[in-house]
Each structure stands twice: as structure tokens, then as C-alpha cells.
Amino acid sequence: MSTSATAAKIVIIGGEGIGPEVTAQSRRILAWFAAHRAMPIVLRDAEYGVGPYLATGEVMPADTWEAIDEADAIVFGATGGPETTAVPAEARRRASLLSLRRKFDLYANLRPIVAHPALAEAAPLKARVLDGVDFVIVRELTRGIYFGEPRGIERLADGQRRGFNTETYTTGEIRRIARVGLELARSRRGRLCSVDKANVLEASLLWREEVQALRDAEFPDVALSHLYVDNCAMQIVRAPAQFDVIVTSNIFGDILSDCAAMAAGSLGMLPSASFGAPDAAGRSKALYEPVHGSAPDIAGKAIANPLGSILSVAMLFRQTLKRPEDALLLERAVARALTGGARTADLAEPGSKPVSTREMGDAVLAALEALAPEMASGRAGEVAADKRQAAMTHS
Ligand code: NAD
């Protein structure tokens, strides 16, 4: 592995629940690319979660913050689960996935949804509904109700308790995420759908007005539509192929992407990438993580699907390392592993024998070994065809 000064620094943080299980496979993939494709990367592992909290009193020990501070990219697993109740709320607030996203203002979260033909039978939606599904949810990640103040649980005079949170967006916060969505749509099929609840929420009304105003002023070539979030959830299940790019708020993006996972066959299939504003040199720290959570119901059983995490690594290749041919190679390897029949339990059809998390990693590595020589023999046309996906980098 290269250790030159120009090598990209990647920190791998498994976290909690199935997080360490899936990132272990991503680590093997990264090591393969470093060894076989002369990829200039330096890998560092760091701890996060209830484990380090019990040992050090911190969810993110100083060593983890240091690794994150110096990293170009973070490959994160998952957080959450019943055992995390051992961590007091105050310690979580000092260091959590939300605070990490907030610290680096990773406001733009890209979640591609692609229906793999090989999974048509395993997916809960009909094959004809899944035909041609290829869209991206752009979720605002560092504002909105997950961060808004005031928030809390208070005791009322009559003895009841009242829980409250605040949905809040400024024009600037809306416009910067709308710009990500509009630019992405422009680089793809030219269609952006903005999702809100403007019929009942003032924050959504402002959202709709600002997205429309930015589109009218600077992106007249992009076809913009608006949907209420409840209708959008229905449309994603009814006819997901209609979408190109969806842009939406933090909470709506969170919910809609789990819904959209059914078009990809399983929540375990979905990758994501999060970016902040670029610095003076045009670089921004990036966080790559699967969309799913810690999946406490299957944690420790070695059956989790690692493909969401592995496909997040492909996003890292394309967007942080600017190596679209390696991203394409990895995505092809995932597709070949699926075509070859590798299925973790979440994808397996009744009666078939699922593979373990590590065996799915093995299948992707075997596909890489088989595909790499073909790619090396020069497939410039295919890399050019990847241009649209490469343009998913917004910064
Ligand atoms: P979840 O995503 O953890 O799991 C939902 C369902 O999908 C479960 O049945 C789970 O077994 C399945 N699933 C998820 N990932 C899978 C994979 N890779 N392979 C196979 N099956 C998979 O969501 P949840 O159950 O609502 O939340 C569990 C915990 O995770 C909660 O504490 C929640 O706050 C947290 N969470 C964390 C993140 C994150 O780390 N980014 C995201 C969502 C939820």
C-alpha cells in the first residue's frame, strides 16, 4: 500500500451493531484496490460507540477525532442499538454520528437507488415496476428537525410530559442543498423532484419557494416538480422509475430512502456519501456509509449484507479519489457477485442457502479478480459511459 504524502487518508470506523461486520468487508475491498490497482490510499481504523465509551468514557476517543480530522474520507459502519442505552445522552451529544456530520457540516447526503436486474426475484416489488430504476435521493443532512432548537421533553403543570422538536430551514440552507440537487439533475436526465409538506408546514412552504426560485434563476434547463412527502412515498413504491433526482429535507430524506430501499431489493444494498462545502483547494471531507442502521436483530450473526457499505466505497473511489474506472470496476464486481448467485439472507429467495457477510465479501473479491484484467485491457468506452455517474460529485 502506498504511504506517499499524496496518498488519500481513509479512516474506517465500524461503530456499533452490524457496522463493524460490514466495514470489515469494505476494508478487504480497499486493501485489494491498494494492492492490485496501485491505489494511493492509507487506511487507519478507529473506534466509535458503546465499546470505547465503556473503556474510556468517550463515544469517540481522542484518537478517533484525530484520525477523522486528518482523513480525506471516513468509511463509517453504523450506530445505535439497545446496548447503547449504557451511554448517557450527554456523552452521545459530545460525540455521535449526528455531531460528526454537523462538525464538518456534511450537509449534502447522496443516496443512489439502483435496481439490480439479478435481484428482480428477490425484491418485494414486481420486476416490471423495477425496470429502469436509477435515481438519487439528495437528503439535507445537518439542519432541520434533527438539529432544530428548541427541543426537549418538559413537565407540564398538570403533571403530563410534553416532547417537542423544531423543524427549521433558512433560505441559505435550502438553496445550498437545492443547488446540489439541481446540478446533479443537470448532469443526469435533467429532472429534479423536490419533496416537502408545504400544505401544512411553513418550513416546507419556504423550502418549495426557494427551490423553485433557484431553479428559475439559474437552472431553467432542469425540469423541476414538487411532491408532498406522503405522495412521494406512494410514488416510490408505485412507479420508482419515474424519478431521476429527489431533493428533500433531513427527516423526509431519512424516511423516503428506507422506502426506496425496496426498489433496490434490501436496505442492506444502499450506499451513501455525504459532503460539506469545498475548501479553498476545492476539496471537502466526505463520509461514506451504508444507509442502514445497526440492525440489532441480526448483529453478531455474521449474516448482514455488506454491499451497501461496499458500494459506498465505490462512491469514495469516484468522488474523493476521482477514479471512476475503479468505481466502475467495483460496481461491476458487485453486480457479477449477485449474478453469480451470492445472496445474503436479506436477498435470498425461500429455500435457497444464503451466504455469510464474509462470503459475500469473498464473492465480490473473486469477481474483482476476474474483471480486473478485462478492465485493464482498455475499456475506455465503458468508462466514458460512466461519465453520468461520475458527475454525481457536486463539488
Ligand atoms: P436498521 O437499518 O438498523 O434495520 C432495519 C431492518 O433492516 C432490520 O430488520 C435489519 O435487520 C435490516 N437490515 C438493515 N441493514 C441490513 C443489512 N446490511 N443486511 C441485512 N439486513 C439489514 O434500522 P432500525 O432497526 O430502525 O434501527 C436500528 C438502530 O440503528 C437504531 O438505534 C437506529 O437509531 C440506528 N440507525 C442508525 C443509522 C446509522 O448508523 N446511520 C441509520 C438508521 C438507524
Describe the structure in your own words.
The protein is α/β, with parallel strands linked by helices and 395 residues long. It has 2 domains: 241 residues, Isopropylmalate Dehydrogenase, CATH 3.40.718.10; 140 residues, 3-Layer(aba) Sandwich (Isopropylmalate Dehydrogenase), CATH 3.40.718. A 10-stranded mixed β-sheet has the order 2-1-3-12-11-4-5-10-8-9, with helices on both faces. The protein has a two-stranded antiparallel ribbon with strand order 6-7. Helix 1 links the parallel strand 1 and strand 2. Helix 1 packs parallel to helix 13 and helix 12 crosses helix 13. The longest helix is centred in the last third of the chain and has 20 residues. The structure holds nicotinamide-adenine-dinucleotide (NAD). Nicotinamide-adenine-dinucleotide binds next to loops.
Mean pLDDT reading: 92
Number of domains: 2
Tell me the CATH architecture of the largest domain.
3-Layer(aba) Sandwich
Structural class: alpha/beta
List keywords for this structure.
395 residues, alpha/beta, 2 domains, 15 helices, 12 strands, 17% strand, disordered C terminus, binds nicotinamide-adenine-dinucleotide
Per-chain topology:
Elements: E1 8-15, H1 19-36, E2 41-46, H2 50-56, H3 62-70, E3 73-78, H4 89-94, H5 97-103, E4 108-114, H6 127-130, E5 134-140, E6 152-155, E7 161-164, H7 171-187, E8 191-196, H8 202-218, E9 223-228, H9 229-238, E10 245-248, H10 250-264, E11 271-275, E12 286-290, H11 307-319, H12 324-339, H13 357-376, H14 380-385, H15 387-390
Parallel strand pairs: 1-2, 1-3, 3-12, 5-10, 8-9, 8-10
Antiparallel strand pairs: 4-5, 4-11, 6-7, 11-12
Helix pairs in contact: 1-11, 1-13, 7-8, 9-10, 11-12, 12-13
